[in-house]
Design brief:
Blueprint: H1 2-25, H2 32-51, H3 54-69, H4 74-96, E1 116-119, E2 122-125, H5 136-139, H6 141-158, H7 160-163, H8 195-204, H9 229-242
Antiparallel strand pairs: 1-2
Helix pairs in contact: 1-2, 6-9, 8-9
Length: 252
């Protein structure tokens, strides 16, 4: 009985961290490393529980011993030692077969933004939108430094889980996403974008992407539902500063 209880408990644990979490709970996404660590802890705990008592150990092993020794368990032995390995081998063979798939659909990583977008009830024209704190970089450097640090606080409270401590897209949850979060240190990311574009992308998230980039399938949330405009503009200051990038201007 203890063997089957352990197996059922293990299956429930794996379903909880897999399909149940991904399809029902959904947030936050669980990285594969996290699942592997907790699976190992669970198995170690079960091993200690079973082997710490002789009676429990005998109860756990009795179904295995009976299956191997008793003549009336011949069918069970046939399933375990013949049918199951054959099925497992066929499954492994099917996975090893080469797959011929259609070419990957092209996708636009930095799609053209709309002329305007809604930030709550306010319409924002992207082309004319400017970071209200960028002027302080020259006019009031001390104040600008404070604003950048406030942006860093916004980033590390909300964004680093995906984009990482070093803004390289390698945050604790990055393995849960396909494609992975943007690497801000990549010269093909922030350095070629204007701040107003980055503000739009952060504010509207994945759901705000135009149709021609839907296959990009960004998982970024709609941050305007969580952050204010000031917080997003300051976070933009930080991701440029933290990635050693400069925002592209119309002159460039």
């Amino acid at each position: 009985m203890l063997l089957w209880q352990s197996i059922l408990l293990f299956i429930f644990f794996e379903l909880l961290l897999g399909p149940i979490w991904n399809n029902v709970i959904k947030w936050p996404p669980l990285p594969h490393q996290f699942i592997s660590i907790y699976t190992t802890i669970f198995m170690a705990a079960m091993f200690v529980y079973v082997t710490s008592d002789e009676a429990r150990m005998k109860s756990f092993l009795s179904p295995i011993v009976n299956t191997l020794a008793k003549p009336e368990r011949a069918v069970a032995r046939l399933i375990v030692f013949v049918a199951f390995p054959v099925v497992l081998g066929l499954w492994a063979y099917s996975k090893a077969l080469p797959k011929y798939e259609a070419p990957a659909e092209t996708r636009t990583v930095h799609p053209d933004p709309p002329l305007q977008f809604k930030f709550h009830d306010q319409s924002i024209t992207i082309q004319t939108a400017e970071n209200p704190y960028r002027k302080d970089e020259k006019e009031n450097p001390a104040k600008f430094k404070e604003e950048v640090m406030e942006g860093a606080q916004v980033y590390y409270q909300n964004c680093f889980f995906c984009h990482g401590d070093n803004l390289d897209g390698q945050g604790p949850f990055h393995e849960a996403f396909n494609p992975e979060p943007a690497n801000f240190t990549d010269t093909g990311t922030l350095a070629i974008l204007q701040e107003n574009y980055v503000f739009w992308r952060i504010s509207t998230g994945g759901p705000g992407l135009p149709q021609n980039s839907k296959s990009w399938n960004s998982a970024m949330p709609v941050w305007q539902n969580i952050l204010t405009q000031d917080q997003i503009w300051k976070a933009v200051l930080w991701i440029y500063k933290g990635s050693n990038s400069s925002p592209r201007t119309f002159a460039k």
